[in-house]
Amino acid sequence: QWGAKREKAKRKSVDVFIALDISESMLATDISPNRLERAKRFAQQLVEELKGERIGTIIFAGNAYLQMPLTTDYAAAQLFLRSANTNMAPTQGTAISEAIDLAEQSFKQTNKQHKALIIISDGEDHSNVAANVAEEAADEGIRIFTIGVGDIKGDPITEKRNGIILNYKKDNKGETVITRLDEETLKNIATEANGAYRNGSNTNKVVEEIR
Question: pTM of this prediction?
Fold first, then answer.
């Protein structure tokens, strides 16, 4: 005898949100080709490694936006991450706390475990509340992993058109803005939410460790 029949099977998987920083500071070129492109490549590689889990994407700058809800449509996740750019954010800044809040709201509230948030950012959040929000997220069963992109020495933010540098971003006093990787903030967030911080300079190694 032969044939086929359908059976219900239970599968344990993790719900993962990838939160990508698209603020203008991510255009700094202290890592090649720039922070944002490196972050996007890292995120796409992460999607490849996390196949089997449900994945959602969040983008953030001055505010956070749900780009794609949790799904197993990995091709869509790759497409959304590839298309991410700084023009998608109407307000500038680095609202990491908003990204954490949005992820918390977007997870199934009945699921108190198997939830992870991976934040890819240069960490330049000047609000100082992200660590507190991360602690609250941990109470909801969310583990947060933070990936730092950039150099602690810093780099000016370039304004380009067609690949040509037109100018460097200036502050209100007319001085060139230097943007630096803030590892301390990213480490604090990860610690409060039972996760881990990794510097994203060695992409392959970090993707494997996060997986």
Answer: 0.89
- How does DSSP assign 155-205, residue by residue? EEPEEEETTEEEEE-B-TTSPBPEE---HHHHHHHHHHTT-EEEETTSHHH
pLDDT tens-digit series, residues 32-72: 899 999 999 999 999 999 999 999 999 999 999 999 999 99
Length of the chain: 211
More confident residue, 174 or 161: 174
What burial letters (b/e) apply to 92-123, b meaning 16+ CB within 10 Å?
A: ebbbbbbbbbbbbebbeeeeeebbbbbbbbbb
d(CA 96, CA 61) in angstroms, rounded, equals: 8
Are the beta carbons of 153 and 178 closer than 8 angstroms?
Answer: no
The number of beta carbons lying within 10 Å of the beta carbon of residue 193 is 27
Mean pLDDT of the chain, nearest integer: 90
Strands across the sheet containing 196-199: 64-71, 54-60, 15-21, 115-121, 142-148, 196-199
Burial (0-12, 13-18, 19+ Cβ within 10 Å), 28: buried
Q: How far is CA 156 from the centre of its chain?
A: 22
